[in-house]
Amino acid sequence: MSSVSVLLRTLNAESYLGPLLESLKRQTLPPIEVLIVDSGSTDRTIEMGEAAGARIETILPEEFTHAYSTNYGFRAAKGELVAMLSQDALPANENWLEALATPHKDQSVGATFGRQVAREGCFPLERWEIERCYPSDSPAPVVYSNVSSLAKKSLWEQCPFDESLRISEDQVWAENVLESGYKVLYIPESHVWHSHTYTLRGVYDRCRAEARARLQADGVRESHGLLWKGWPKQAMLDAHRLIREGSLASVPRAWAYRFAQFAGMVNGGKS
Fold first, then answer.
1. Pairing with 133, which of 35, 112, 184, 195 sits 20 to 30 Å away (CA)?
2. SS3 for 189?
3. Measuring CA to CA, which residue among 195, 206, 213, 189 is closest to residue 99?
4. With the CA atoms of 218, 165, 37 and 113 taken in that order, what torsion angle do they form, in degrees rounded to the nearest 10?
5. What is the pLDDT of residues 32-60, one digit of tens each?
6. Which residues of 204-239 are buried (b: 16+ CB within 10 A; e: fewer)?
7. Domain 4-193, CATH homologous superfamily name and number
């Protein structure tokens, strides 16, 4: 098995870091290093990382983008393979890393990524989206994500992440890898607990940023029809599902959530 570095990109990760670092110590495939790229933490993140034996690299807060910090970490990593893990993701089993790394014995495999499972208490619409994008056993199309992934460093040297993109750089990177003739494999056996609790403004901002990145990367633009036709239809489908799940009280927020989501997609695609 090739040597593996685990790359964590952190900012004030104190509340997540303890369980995460402990889970890495229990992996059936021990990494040769845990590399933390920190972008200006003011809590105990760096102290906790050093105490656990992690190697610490720092960048300035104003330098941070997802692509820049990831490229920085790949450049610094000592392993032939580099696993990426978000600071708020927690490996759910002890073979998280081994399951991601094993397929790389095949030199045609460029990258692997794992399943994400919503944390307890996640808002239903966010949980549904995670379940859709990261199914438990389906080969259906899924969304590549550096929340939990692993790639060959030699491939990254040929194809680094696009630092002009503010968001969705991982998805664009995976598309480039596929176009280069490598395989990108979804490994549902490797899974992490990971979800967010967004405000409505957060939903809007995230979807707007994703739409802007998609427009920048390949010219895909959403029309206003998506908002005024797509939103009512989706809102009714959401309401029916919430009622079936016994979550009638969540319907008003679900409608607002979807409106923020669709509005962000449309407005992000305009500029």
1. 35
2. strand
3. 189
4. -20
5. 999 999 999 999 999 999 999 999 999 99
6. bbbbbbbbbbbbbbeeeebeeeebeebbeebbeebb
7. Spore Coat Polysaccharide Biosynthesis Protein SpsA; Chain A (3.90.550.10)
Instruction: Report which residue type is found at 79.
Output: G
Strand order in the sheet with 33-38: 55-58, 33-38, 4-10, 81-86, 148-152, 109-117, 183-193, 90-91
Predicted TM-score of the model (pTM): 0.89
Dihedral angle, C-alpha 202, 213, 37, 133, nearest 10 °: 70
Closest CA to 110 of 52, 158, 142: 158
How do residues 151-203 score in pLDDT, each as one tens digit? 999 999 999 999 999 889 999 999 999 999 999 999 999 999 999 988 999 99
- Domain layout of the chain by residue ranges: 4-193, 200-268
Please give the single-letter amino acid code of residue 101. Answer: A
